[in-house]
């Protein structure tokens, strides 16, 4: 990764730490015991902890292990959101927010796929991790501070959302646990050197990360990202 890419690729979430903590507290106050919102907030805690573990890891084996733990909770959580919560957000009058949520998570998945192909012994691995972390923390802030409160207030079928969100998360988590217990682990290989990190995907990360930081865009119903 070039110096320019490093500078352009680094995402510092635009909100302050205390703003994020306030959003989390507000969302916790709106949640009920065992509901979808409590589950989602627990996942967010787990995701934040997993990022910290990965950032602190220095040995390649520890980084790989931390990456897999992070990917499991991030993928399970985001897939359950995409299958259950974002459709409900759109159905209840928040199509622009749902569209932005899908776009942000798709970008994070593309960046995680890039990270998976970088040798964890390389400095580029930590650069990429930090890039993803900044984008995911901002996405979580949007969910906790705005989108989930809208969903909690507007969706009439809260019990349905809780049941379906739990089902979809468990489906992924159970599959990941079964896979981890299987003996078919393969030796790890990396597809690229740091210099081969896909510039196009770097571009996607930057282009999609920019609008995330402009609050007015999330309020513009006519400014939906193009549908896939
Ligand atoms: Fe989330």
Write up this protein:
By secondary structure, this protein is mainly α. About 75% of the residues lie in helices and about 0% in strands. The protein contains nine helices and no strands. It has one domain. The structure holds fe (ii) ion. Fe (ii) ion binds near residues 44, 81, 140 and 143.
Helices and strands in order:
Layout: H1 3-9, H2 17-30, H3 36-56, H4 60-91, H5 95-116, H6 123-154, H7 158-181, H8 199-212, H9 215-218
Helix pairs in contact: 2-6, 3-4, 3-6, 4-5, 4-7, 5-6, 5-8
The chain binds fe (ii) ion (FE2).
Quickly list its features.
mainly alpha; binds fe (ii) ion; 9 helices; 228 residues; 75% helix; disordered N terminus; globular
β-sheet strand percentage: under 5%
What structural category characterises the helix and strand content? mainly alpha
**Quick one: how many beta strands?**
0
Radius of gyration: 18 Å
How many helices? The count is 9
Q: Characterize the largest beta sheet: strand count, sense, and whether it forms a barrel.
A: none
